[in-house]
Specification:
The protein has 175 residues and is of the alpha/beta class. The chain is built from 5 helices and 5 strands; from the N terminus they run βαβαβαβαβα.
Length: 175
């Protein structure tokens, strides 16, 4: 019995069209994982000459047991965070195609909403909240389950110092 060669083919509908790849959105919160996500998102956006939107989401705590200082402004903290993360990745030479923004609400909901017009959502595997031992955070899991575009979840590389404290020390040393 002779065997004929087998040719595998994929329908056009399952093959990605990278020609339309024009907008990448990355969520950041200042964690090591989100800085790694921004680095990966930048390399992808650069390769496709795509716009890169860096988003930091903030919200007021919703607990009657949480004491919030009267002079605390989470929107200002979010603005500082998105700039600190961008500085850690780009330094003083942030490309023109990179846009920084903050948004109020649930991090997962904001990024899922952004997925309506994005070609790719990038997020870190773990943020500042939750249990550090878990491999995947609740925000990244929710985005992966509900986004309207592809999602890339980035794990930080072991041994790479990308946290905010290291970025601040580096900045202070350069002054």
């Amino acid at each position: 019995m002779s065997e004929s060669p087998v040719t595998l083919s994929h329908p056009e509908s399952v093959q990605p069209d990278f020609g339309e790849f024009s907008r990448v959105v990355v969520g950041v919160d200042g964690s090591e994982s989100s800085i790694a996500a921004l680095r990966k998102a930048e390399s992808i956006a650069e390769a496709f000459d795509a716009q890169l939107d860096v988003v930091c989401v903030w919200t007021y705590p919703i607990s009657r047991y949480t004491m919030v200082p009267p002079d605390w402004y989470p929107d200002r903290d979010a603005a500082r965070t998105v700039h600190d993360v961008a500085d850690a990745v780009f330094g003083e030479s942030k490309p023109e195609r990179v846009h920084l923004s903050i948004a109020e609400g649930s991090a997962a909901r904001v990024l899922i909403d952004e997925s309506d017009t994005a070609d790719l959502i990038v997020t870190g595997s773990r943020g500042h909240g939750g249990f550090a031992g878990l491999l995947l955070g609740s925000v990244s899991a929710e985005i992966a389950a509900h986004a309207h575009c592809p999602v890339l979840i980035v794990h930080p590389h072991a041994g790479v110092k990308t946290d905010r404290a290291a970025a601040k020390k580096s900045e202070e040393a350069s002054r």
